[in-house]
Write a structure and sequence with these properties.
- The protein has five helices and 13 strands.
- With 224 residues, the protein is of the alpha+beta class.
- The strands form four sheets. The chain has a five-stranded antiparallel beta sheet with strand order 3-4-8-6-7. Strands 10, 11, 12 and 13 form a four-stranded antiparallel beta sheet that branches.
- It is globular.
- The chain binds flavin-adenine dinucleotide (FAD).
Length: 224
């Protein structure tokens, strides 16, 4: 019988339902346990990015995606870019080890030394190498964030995206800018820049964020 796994259920392509097969739904397994001294979180297979709020009281977080409802395992197995990627890499870079049920029913723990091929495959392979029941992820000290959204009309896309590329070449790792296209209320496309400053120095953060509102004539920016 075809088997599929549903973690957060937040997949672009809706890959988790199994047509005529069996879908294993992990939404009941959302526990996150935080070790603030080792800066490691134990994340259950169905936990979402929002469940990592358990690390927040310690000023800690990990590399997640842009939406709280995304499954941490699904995100990590697919790579996982997000607002902290510039500083801490992809979610897969922060995976330390995982407990996995393989297709033959055996349970293994994998990391860079135990079952290293499986560990390599899990980090970006997309999820068909087994069912991750639990994983350990690295946490980082990020007590504050500055984030927002700058919107430009589509007509300025060329200048804005070329300018963004120049800005990023000169920016410190603490600045990550996610960008893309969103519909405006009248349906016309807009370019969005979603910057996040994760550094401790807020003055440096304001300096790093300022050029992003000056790449053209924004329709909306944090200061407008
Ligand atoms: C609106 C939206 C915004 C997004 N934003 C981002 C973003 O900012 N950054 C980013 O990197 N991605 C983003 N994504 C993509 C998302 O990270 C991937 O689609 C991811 O696979 C979703 O994981 P899930 O567990 O929520 O989804 P599910 O549909 O539950 O799972 C998707 C697949 O992941 C595998 N999987 C999930 N959990 C497990 C597990 N415990 N063990 C084994 N396999 C598992 C399975 O193969 C499953 O079919 C976004 C998607 C959407 C819809």
């Amino acid at each position: 019988m075809p088997l599929s796994v549903r973690g957060g259920g937040h997949d672009w392509a809706g890959r988790s339902p199994s047509d005529g097969g069996l879908t294993i739904i992990l939404s009941g397994m959302r526990r996150v346990t935080v070790d603030p001294v080792a800066r490691v979180a134990e994340v259950s297979g169905g936990a979402t990015a929002a469940d990592l709020a358990a690390a927040e009281p310690f000023g800690l977080t990990t590399a997640t995606g842009s939406a709280g409802s995304v499954g941490m395992a699904g995100l990590t197995l697919g790579g996982g870019y997000g607002p902290l990627s510039g500083r801490f890499g992809l979610a897969l870079d922060n995976l330390l080890s995982a407990d996995v049920v393989l297709a033959n029913g055996s349970v293994v723990t994998t990391d860079s030394e135990r079952e290293p091929d499986l560990f390599w495959a899990l980090r970006g392979g997309g999820g068909n190498f087994g069912l991750v029941t639990s994983m350990r992820v690295r946490l980082h000290h990020v007590p504050t964030l500055h984030s927002g959204m700058v919107l430009y009309p589509w007509e300025q896309a060329d200048t804005v995206l070329a300018g963004l590329s120049d800005v990023l070449l000169e920016s410190p790792d603490e600045l990550t800018v996610q960008s893309g296209v969103l519909p405006s209320p009248d349906g016309s496309p807009m370019v969005f820049l979603s910057p996040t400053w994760s550094g401790d120095d807020t003055t440096a953060g304001e300096r790093a964020l300022a050029p992003l509102s000056a790449l053209g004539a924004p329709r909306a920016s944090p200061s407008s």
